[in-house]
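Hi team,

Filling in the usual template for the complex we talked about on Friday. All components are listed, including any nucleic acid strands or ligand strings, so the model treats them as one assembly.

SUBMITTER: L.P.
PURPOSE: interface mapping
COMPONENTS: two
RESIDUES: 706
SEQUENCES:
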Amino acid sequence: MDYFIFGAVAAYFLSSAGYMLFLAKQKEKYCNAGFILNLAGFVFLSVVLVLSFAESGHVPVSNMRETLVLAAWAISGVFITFQTVLRLKVLGAFAVPMCLVITTVAANLPSTQASETAIFKSGWLLFHVLAIFAGDAALVLAFGIGLLYLLQENAIKSKSHGFFYKRLPPLETLDHAGYVCLKAGFSLLTLGLIVGFIYARAVWGRFISWDPKEVWSFITWLVYAALLHQRYVAGWRGKRAAIMSVIGFFLLVFTFLGVNFLFPGHHGVFTK
Amino acid sequence: MIDETEKKDIILVGLNHTTAPVELRERLAFTHDETIAALDSFRDKPEVCEAMLFSTCNRVEILMTAKDPEAAKQMAKQFISEFKGVAESKFENALYVYINSDAVRHVFRVAASLDSLMVGEPQILGQIKDAFRLAADRKIAGVILNKLLHKTFFISKRVRTETGIGDHAVSISYAAVELAKKIFGELTGISALLIGAGEMAELAIEHLRRNRIQKIYVANRTFERGVALADRFNGEAVKFEEIGDTLISADIIISSTDARDYVLKRKDVKTALKARKHKPLFFIDIAVPRDIDLEINRLSNAYVYDIDDLQNVIEENLTERRNEALKGERIIDEAVIKFRKWRETLDVVPTIKALRTRIETIVEGELEKTLSSTLKNISEADSAAMRRMVDAMVNKILHEPTMLLKENSYHKARPQYLDFTKKLFNLDDVEEDN
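RESULT (copied from the run log):
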C-alpha cells in the first residue's frame, strides 16, 4: 500500500511542477501534463483507499494517516471535476501542491489501527464522511480562488500590473468560480451534517451530543451560510466574498484538525 | 576561366525613423504611383537585376539584387536624388546600406515589426506584401527576391505567433478595453456609459462595440449632442442629471468632458454600488482636468483609471513587447543562416569548380597510376603528350555541362540543375575542401 502512496506523492509532485510551469509560461501542454498527472495521483490514492477499506472493512478514517489520504483524495478529485466543468486551469497551481503536501505528510505517519468499535460499521458513516470531505474540498478550492481573486484585485486596484495580472483570469471569472465552489461545498457540507445527525441517532441514540467537533462544524456551517446569504441578498461579492472564503477556510481547518487536538470528543478517534 | 560576375549580391539602401527626421522622410516618401514609376525606371538600369521599393511614413527602402553592389548603391542614391529633387548631400548621412546576409536580416526584421517605431505593430507586413506585389507585377522581382520575400512573410508570421510582440495594447483605447476584460471577462453582457465626447473616448466605445457589449448610454451636457452621438453608436442618450441612476445599469464608464470639477463623486458611486449589489464598476477617465474623483478607486469593486494610469499600462506593455522582440531576433538569426545556405546552392561558380576538381582528381590519379606502372618506360615527351591529351579530354567533357549551368536562359531552373549536378557527381564532399 505504501508504494501507492509514494506513487501518489510522485504524481502530485510532477503535476504541481506542470501547473507551476503553466502559470509561468502559459503553455497549454504544461497544464495538460499537470491534469493527467493529477489524475494519476487520484487513481493511486483511490487504490490506497480501496485497499484500506478491504483490509479493515470500514471507512478508512480510523487514524490521521487515513484521514489525510482521504482529504487529499477529495481535493484532487473535486479539482478534476472542477477543472473539467469550469476550466479555471491556473487553480491547479494551488490545488495540486495542496494535495502534494497533505499526501506527503500522510505518507510519513504511522498507520496505527483504531480499536474496533461498532461506530465504524454503518453505511451512513461512509455517506457522512464522503459528503463532508467532498464539501470541505470544494470549500478549499473556494479558498484558493479567493486568494487568486485578492491577488488580481490588488494588481488592478494598485495599477501595478506584475507577474499575476497577465496570468490570472478576469475578476468576474474568479468571482463566479468561487461562488460555484462555495455553493457546491456548502450543499455537500449541509448534506454531510444531516447524515451525521441521523448517524449519531443510530449509534448513540441522540442527534447531537455537543461534542466539540459538532459544535465547531455548526459554527463553520453558519459562517458559510451567512456568506452565501449576504451574497444573495446584499451582493457580498468580489473582494469581501474572497476575504470571507479565506476566513472560512481557516475555520474549516480548525474544525477539521484543531478541534481533535484541543478538545476530547467522539470524533477524536479519527485522528489518533 | 569561369565568369566570376555570375554571382549576384542582395543590396538594401534605405532610411527610417531612427536615421532620418520626419521632414526628410516626408520629402523622400514614394506614393503608390511614384513607386510604380520608380520600378519601371529600375528595369532599364543595367546596374540592377531585381528590385522592389518600399515606402511608408516611417521608412523608404530599396531592395535590389545586383552584380556590383557599389554601382547599385550609387544608382539608388542618384535615382532618389533625381526623382525627388533632393540633393544627395541632404540625405546621404541618413542612408544605411546592407549587403547580403545583413540585407536579408534587415528585411526580416522590418517585416516582423522589430524595426518599427511601435514594436509589434501589425500593419507593416501588409505594406511589404503590397510593395512586393507591385514589383512582381512589373516583372522586376526575380528568383532571389521572390524567395526572399516569401521567406520574409513566413518568418514574420512565425515571429508573431511564437513570441508576444503583438500582445498587449499600446494605445489608450485598446489598453482601456483590455483592462475592462481583466475585470469583467467576456464583455457580451456588459453596458457602457460615455460621458462627454472626444476622439479617444469614442475610439474606446468603438472597441467595446467590437467586443459586442450589450448596451451603450451617452450623456452629454447638450442633450442634442448626446442624442446625435447615441445614434452613431446605436445607443441611448441620457440626461446629464441622470448619470447617477445610469450607474446602476452601466458597468464601464468612459468620461471625457471639459468640466472644471469632478463629474462623479465618491458618494454617487457608493450609492450606485449598493443599488447594483456591488457588481464591479470600471471608470476610464480620459479628461484633463479629471472627471472622476480618484477617491472612488478606494471603494470596493470600483476601479478608476485616469489617462496617466493608462499611459503607464502602455509603457509597461511596450517594455514587454521589447523583451519579446529578443526572442524574435533569435528566430530571425536562424532564418538568415538558412537563407544564406539556400543562396549558396544558387552559386554556379563553386559547383563548376567542384565538378572540375572531381573529374581532374579521378583522371590525374588514374594517369599517374598508369604512367608509373604499365607505361613507366615511355619517354618524357610521350608522357607530356599523354597529359595534354587527358587535359583536353577533361575540358571537352566539361564544356557542355559548364555552358548549361552558366546559361542565363535556364536561370529559373538553375537551382534544380545545380542540385542535380551535385548529386550526380557527389560534389558536396569536394566543396568542403575548397
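MY TAKE: Chain A has a mean pLDDT of 86. Residues 123-158 of chain A form the longest helix (36 residues).

Thanks, L.
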